[in-house]
Amino acid sequence: MSIASTGATPYYAVIFTSIRTSGDGGYGDMADAMLEAAAKQPGFLGVESAREGLGITVSYWESLEAIAAWKRDAEHLTAQKLGREQWYECYKTRICKVERDYDFSRL
Amino acid sequence: MSIASTGATPYYAVIFTSIRTSGDGGYGDMADAMLEAAAKQPGFLGVESAREGLGITVSYWESLEAIAAWKRDAEHLTAQKLGREQWYECYKTRICKVERDYDFSRL
């Protein structure tokens, strides 16, 4: 995974921080399917994800409306339900407006 | 590391996404020192971090002024310089206003 190319500010970020239950129980396949489905949503700008005990997934969006539509997506609602029932000990979701950004590359 | 307890919205988040160069070169010690130093800053609310190829560190703050003060911190300026010179292939920093949050716990 690479750093998301998100274009000019302002745009929006959803920071999803989670701690998993043990075992997979279909989690890996669903996580892959959700990344693929999110990328097809209108207003999707990119995603960054890492897990090291704590998991952090940040998805980037053009607008709050795009985030709301993704939250209501039927396949995503199923994943959210399974997440609460099976996959997550706990999670926190934060909806943010990205006001400024800057980057560095040695290339 | 656990999910940060960040209190009521609004507050601010700095999403720092990075890809490391190979080798440590003092990085691990400096990363630990920076987490410790950030936690002592006025207005610091918490931090979440994971690396899995891509590294994502999200720090949370009471205000943009608190973020600006941390950016100017002398020890932090040294770390930022070494980061560009040695530790990072590339990084992106995003300054965000957290507008809403919600969480789930099975406990």
From TrEMBL, chains A, B:
Keywords: Monooxygenase, Oxidoreductase. InterPro entries: ABM_dom, Dimeric_a/b-barrel, Jasmonate_Hydroxylase-like. Residues 11-81 form the ABM domain. SUPFAM superfamilies: Dimeric alpha+beta barrel. Pfam families: ABM. One of its GO terms (molecular function) is monooxygenase activity. PANTHER family: ABM DOMAIN-CONTAINING PROTEIN (PTHR37811:SF2), BLL5343 PROTEIN (PTHR37811). This is Antibiotic biosynthesis monooxygenase. It comes from Rugamonas brunnea. The lineage of its organism: Bacteria, Pseudomonadati, Pseudomonadota, Betaproteobacteria, Burkholderiales.
